[in-house]
Write a sequence for this structure.
């Protein structure tokens, strides 16, 4: 097993390149920005700031690849290329894991065991779907036949967040590419490095030049240029609700491109007194908010506990929080690393300061400096939280848990649904009838019963209300990147 020193040596040996990848070529830009690592607070490399010219070039390249290359390849050839790309991800797993750790601070143990193998598996899943998702032949009158096919839509613009840099990119790229589209990918400005490396591996895997372009830069410039581009047919986005609304506006101002959004969340976790194993429920409750530093859109940040067990359960959750090893993410023993950057750490710290004025700080709450970086925040737990307070209503995107008691099932359901978001929820109970009844009443895209944040590549993921629409993962994701085309033949 590699040690912290091993990983630090491997990180120091990386040859980092922050230039965009357009039409298969590393492309420098006049303007660049420093990519600061939250692990060291030092610059990793300069990253291209792509403007309108670079985005135009990338889109033109993807349009050409779509019309003459990728979409014209046989299903078997596309399948082979995506399988090869999956193999290359695994062959370069340590490098890709390090890039994500250095960019956004997730523990190396999570990157190597979850993010990188998960990305490869998702690519394989959609590669296998290429020749297995068929069209339809509906019933028609005699003398007629109607052929309904799924056809790729063209050029996809994909804008992805920084919390799972490679894996979120793969969530978008795998189904889009499997369907025969080409992609212009815009990674978050905080975490571009694994996406840039992925574009190089795609070329090595046999994807034609221009099939996957990666344009880097700020959201308000590069992201807006992608959203407003009139030759992009589909826009897929994961990120904040506020930015998601910008992309809907961009579509209306440009070419009415389809827009698919997976946005914010403030997921509730309901724990009833009849839960069979409170210790297990507490372990999962802590994991549901503190995993990945709380930088998870579906994080269970609102813990609703039946009042008769609220004190006992709170102590169990605090005990779990105390077990978390906060530290340098290159140390395999670390279970929680720094937040993505000083700006995000400061934003979360402001929420904590606000929470102290209206609730009881029962655990954590301090911002720490480790190895020169001030991006570390302790696992933080508030009790006595008012449902109207900002820590109970706003997406914090950090390791902050609000514990709120309830007296009745109906009250718990009301509090859980009292949110602008509807991404995920969890329910803990030993009563099967209650499990079904409460799950049906919760307005969320995924309800996990006696577990938290349940996820599988063959299960659709997405939400309701201002958490967005459309689904990632599963075969349903192909719906976003294909259109139903009918050919009606009258033969008599």
């Amino acid at each position: 097993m590699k040690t912290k020193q091993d990983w630090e040596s491997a990180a120091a040996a990386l040859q980092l390149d922050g230039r965009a990848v357009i039409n298969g070529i590393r492309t420098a830009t006049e303007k660049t920005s420093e990519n600061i690592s939250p692990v060291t607070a030092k610059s990793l490399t300069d990253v291209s700031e792509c403007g309108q010219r670079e985005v135009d070039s990338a889109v033109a390249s993807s349009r050409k690849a779509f019309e003459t290359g990728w979409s014209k390849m046989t299903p078997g050839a596309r399948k082979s290329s995506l399988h090869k790309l999956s193999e290359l991800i695994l062959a370069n797993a340590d490098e890709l894991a390090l890039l994500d750790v250095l960019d956004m601070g997730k523990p190396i143990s999570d990157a190597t065991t979850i993010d990188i193998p998960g990305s490869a598996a998702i690519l394989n899943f959609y590669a296998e779907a290429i020749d297995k998702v068929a069209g339809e032949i509906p019933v028609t009158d005699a003398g007629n036949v109607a052929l309904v096919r799924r056809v790729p839509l063209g050029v996809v613009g994909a804008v992805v967040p920084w919390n799972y840099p490679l894996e979120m990119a793969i969530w978008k790229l795998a189904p889009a590419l499997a369907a025969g589209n080409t992609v212009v990918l815009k990674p978050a400005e905080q975490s571009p490095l694994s996406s840039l490396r992925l574009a190089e591996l795609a070329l090595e895997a046999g994807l034609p030049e221009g099939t996957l372009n990666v344009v880097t830069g700020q959201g308000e410039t590069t992201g807006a240029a992608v959203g407003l581009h009139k030759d992009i047919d589909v826009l897929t986005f994961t990120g904040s609700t506020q930015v998601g609304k910008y992309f809907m506006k961009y579509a209306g101002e440009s070419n009415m491109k389809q827009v698919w959004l997976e946005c914010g969340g403030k997921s509730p976790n309901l724990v009833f007194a009849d839960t069979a194993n409170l210790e297990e429920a507490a372990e999962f409750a802590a994991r549901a908010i503190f995993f990945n530093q709380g930088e998870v859109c579906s994080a269970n940040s609102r813990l609703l506990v039946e009042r008769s067990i609220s004190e006992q359960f709170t102590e169990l959750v605090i005990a779990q929080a105390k077990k978390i090893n906060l530290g340098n993410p290159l140390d395999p023993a670390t279970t929680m690393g720094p937040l993505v950057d000083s700006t995000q750490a400061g934003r979360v710290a402001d929420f904590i300061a606000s929470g102290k004025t209206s609730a009881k700080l029962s655990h954590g709450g301090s911002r720490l400096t480790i190895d020169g970086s001030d991006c570390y925040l302790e696992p933080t737990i508030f009790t006595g939280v008012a449902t109207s307070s900002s820590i109970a209503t706003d997406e914090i995107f950090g390791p902050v848990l609000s514990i709120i008691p309830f007296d009745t099932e109906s009250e718990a359901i009301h509090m859980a649904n009292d949110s602008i978001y509807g991404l995920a929820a969890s329910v803990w109970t030993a009563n099967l009838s209650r499990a079904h009844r409460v799950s049906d009443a919760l307005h969320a895209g995924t309800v996990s019963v006696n577990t938290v944040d349940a996820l599988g590549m063959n299960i659709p993921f997405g939400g309701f209300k201002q958490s967005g629409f459309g689904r990632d993962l599963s075969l349903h994701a192909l719906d976003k990147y294909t259109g139903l085309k009918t050919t009606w033949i009258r033969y008599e």
